[in-house]
Amino acid sequence: MHRIVRKRVLGPNLVELEVEAPLVAAKARPGQFVIVRLHDKGERIPLTLADWDPREGTLTLVAQMVGKTTHQLGEEYQVGDAILDVVGPLGNPSEIQNYGTVVCVGGGVGIAPIFPIARSLREKGNQVLGVVGARTKELLFWLDRMEEVCHELHVTTDDGSYGRKGVVTEPLREILASRPVGHVWAIGPAIMMKFATRTAQEFGVPITVSLNPIMVDGTGMCGGCRVELEGQAKFACVDGPEFPGEQVNWDLLLARLSAYKEEERCALEQYLQVKEGRR
Amino acid sequence: MIRPTQVPMREQDPKERIRNFAEVPLGYTPEEAIAEAERCLQCKNAPCIRGCPVQINIPKFIRELREGEFRAAITTIKETNNLPAICGRVCPQETQCQAECTLGKKYEPVAIGRLERFVADWEYENGVEIPAVSDPSGFRVAVVGSGPAGLTCAADLRRLGHDVTIFEALHEPGGVLMYGIPEFRLPKTIVRAEIENLLKMGVELRLNVVVGRTITVDELFQQGYHAVFVGSGAGLPKFLGIPGENLIGIYSANEFLTRVNLMRGYLFPEYDTPVKVGRVVAVVGGGNVAMDAARTALRLGAERVVVLYRRTEAEMPARREEIHHAKEEGVEFHFLVNPVRFLGDQGKVAGVECIRMELGEPDESGRRKPFPVPDSNFIVPADTVIVAIGNDPHPLVPRTTPGLKTTPHGTVVADEEGRTTREGVFAGGDIVTGAATVISAMGAGKRAARAIHEYLCSRYGKKEG
User: Fold this and answer.
1) CA of A57, closest CA in chain B: separation in Å?
2) Alpha-carbon span A241 to B378, nearest angstrom
3) Can you tell me the ipTM of this complex?
4) What is the pTM of this model?
5) Region of poorest pLDDT, from A115-129, A201-215, A249-263, B197-211
6) What is A101-210's CATH number?
7) Closest chain A residue to B399 measured between Cα atoms?
């Protein structure tokens, strides 16, 4: 059982949770993820690590409430409640080296996992340029934490309610056009990572992305998370989750993400109805 | 006068059972079991024992059963097999003990598996005796994986007085017994009961620990474990590697069965994990897992389930009983066909392009090797495909354990007794042999337990607890 020790609402449908998981916290590295199962009828969902504290034995997870499980986690689970299963750290850690100058791009809920990567890159002596963006001001979070670890931070919102109006690829493009960059990291919605990859490719700069396909076990057993890299099938859970963006078949990833769209909607609607009824 | 045929076991009617997940064979009554036991010739040389990977004293337990001494019979079985309710159901007896049965030369062999199941179920209903545990040895052993190899190894080590901790990556113990084999073939209450017994013996179980990620084998030694048994299995699903394989609606058998068995996808949305089955399901492969997937798909409401297998029925690795059950339930079989490409419609699978095959000379497995017939391509329409062509060994433990040698196939190098190339590390089951059977994994777990015991005694001398 994994007790929730802190909880904070970051924005509409966006929560930050600190959860006890000492074994995972002791081993966690940037870029890795955990599988979480809330209760004994729950599904197993992957969440990329946003932060961890080995001394306190806790993990920080940021979840966007999109489906039933994340809604339940965000709305029903309070400080003191326990999550049934937390497994990890899973996946390969980010390859943190000194690349000279790196750009760390975080889109939406992807701001959370890009943070520990940016921090480690900074510790390795990189010049770290941050680009974070969201649809609107209320969905931005952790700007203070990103400010702390980035030499420069560029902020965008789609609607212009905060920072620059536009999407993250615009500042990314300007940075890449203006100075030599050794590596780009991008984490966010698949479509954002796809376009960040295109932008990096235009300038011939290598880019690492963190893929978030549908997973069941997260340990290499089901193959549901298979993605295609240069025509080769890979399992995101054991071969990734980070991959060179240039090699990813984005359209396939986007299609596979929608495999259970109907079921996800049905589960969420039913959950919200029941919740409404309880009120 | 010996009855030439086995006493039949009652089964759920096929028309009924394809609408539920309850067990198909219903078990013997005591009278039926005794009648079947009376067919045993009690051969002095007991060839059946040679056919058993864990050398159960088969004539002895059958004699006890026949005399109505059910408790004695189960005790005899448990001297060498701690999971009889499971083995009685999923062992391929027809190629093991029953293949050696003297009676089988003239008539049907004694139904040893059914008798084993009968006494195991009898014990389950009448109270299980927890095996005695020796005085504490003072040694600690870590067992990686709670599948058949790990469970057997843990039980045997515990009986010898060692302190045993099992580390399991998933949220439920049992490995393939839980996530792989469906309820209708192996009820999960049985697996849970067997694990419960292990815990009563004092084995410790740590769930949600992925050895190789959460903790490494090196760290287990640092934490004071004196030996490690790796039974992490062959869990990595193989795919065909043909175009279109990543279309939506194409599952590995592992994913499909895990969603149903472990995550209870058949109870969605009461349980949160969905599983999708279309109208026409194609299952690729001819083993037990393919049969499990096909029969599960039927139970989830598929209108048609078609098994595609590249050889003929005679070469199918699945148990005859499972093929028979699948046919009874309405699963269709296309033999001598091999998929070459999956066809899609808006990102979803819509069909399988196959090529016809013919059999040539026997290959290294002794089965005749299939060859494609040129220009014989045809299309099998399907909106769900389940690929059940086997699994590769799980790479996490070998990859993170220095000094642990693996073969080019990714299996861990170990001798007959499970000794690996690294001192104190033993391995057995599918991680060593590649995907095989429950009972062979149990046999390996057993031999490794003995080897670990010998290793601990000789390496450290007798320790006082």
Assistant:
1) 13
2) 37
3) 0.93
4) 0.93
5) A249-263
6) 3.40.50.80
7) A238
